[in-house]
Amino acid sequence: MQILKNSTPKILVVGDLMIDHYLWGSCERISPEAPVQVVDIAKETTVLGGAGNVINNLKALGAEVSVSSVIGSDDNGAELLNMLKEIGVETRSIITQDGRKTSKKSRVIAVSQQILRYDNESKEEITRTSEKEILDSLSKSIAEFDAVILSDYGKGVLTVALCKGIIKLCRDAGVKVLVDPKGSDFSKYSGAYLLTPNKKEAMLATNIDIKDNASLEAALLKLKKECNLEVSLITLSEDGIATYENELKIFPTVAKEVFDVTGAGDTVIASIAFALSVGKNIEQTAAFSNLAAGVVVGKIGSATVTIDEIEEYEASLHKSTSDAHIKSFEDIDKIVNRYRENGKKVVFTNGCFDILHVGHVKYLQIAKSFGDILIVGLNSDESVSRLKGPSRPVNVTEDRAYILAALEAVDFVVPFEEDTPHDLIKMIKPHVLVKGGDYKDKDVIGTEFADELRLVDFVDGKSTTKTIQKIQGN
User: Could you tell me the pTM of the whole model?
Assistant: First the structure.
């Protein structure tokens, strides 16, 4: 995951741009003019839609993004350009075509329910002149990019000629082209590196009823052959992602909770492009994309995902190495803030955890049961020596942290140098602070920063000191 966090690939998105416009209000009466609801609008919001949602996902992951499209010379077009520039997207390859309407989809929402949507857009194909302007512009810059995404929403920008022209430019320059396809005829995408159809789209395009692994493999092979792809890929919703490079491989989904699948396809292609651009192979890329999708479907509305969120999500599934669970003060501060924003209950405890034993494990399991996320503050070697004597610790900080982080009950481990975790608790401000039962009727460091203190009794006869004494006695 570290290489992904430290990378800024340059990715070009070509496709149908649009503005998603929301009118939020309340509805308390019926119009006297007609049997329709009257909505009192309280606020308006706008976000990038269509290929713009792919752009938002790429920016959230940390990519440097450029965009090429065709818009109208209208107010919506000017608004869309400003929205792109505000998030730092290069727009020099966006063409303005006279007489074309820039897509804007307006939704009226009252009492958390969409009542009406009205669209203002052009859906006919762009002109040959616009196609040529895009290709002329991209021919000068295509080699600068690590990957190109064609995001087809069927609004007329990605014509047959434009798709074929861009794919040829990319193949000549050695740049991978990834396509989120539209319709049932994928021939215009021939020569791309891969496509990302969902199961339904793949069935329509191949005329194969995908009902088992055999039919899935047949559909993947047909797409690979007929579209001249390097890798064939089909997204399977809750079943994950299937790929065919040299053989069929299925990567199961890792979503824990599904609140909304809106825009999940945009997250998938953005994360695939990002991972491939930094040198990941298709297996690593599919696994990363599954994690990204797992995060985004747990959010409401068209959402984006960051590398940090993916890393934390992977850690929560305990599919990552222990290293991913060991955090610095700076890291854990950001992580806790995100969990709080998502309504998660944070639990904190601390200790030396020198020689891990069953008493430790049961204590940590009970601590985790008090909330959603368990953070363990770990005394450093110097801190342990000051508390326990010069012969301790038996195991160094790195070893103790790694073993703790491998426990299912532990989400994150944060080593600290001080004798007490006062500063760490002050920063985290946990919902629940957990200490051992021997702290009954004693002052507990950091309680003023926690919402609640819980004491957990230790397992009789189990302690690091007794373990050491037993070893020495033998």
Answer: 0.74
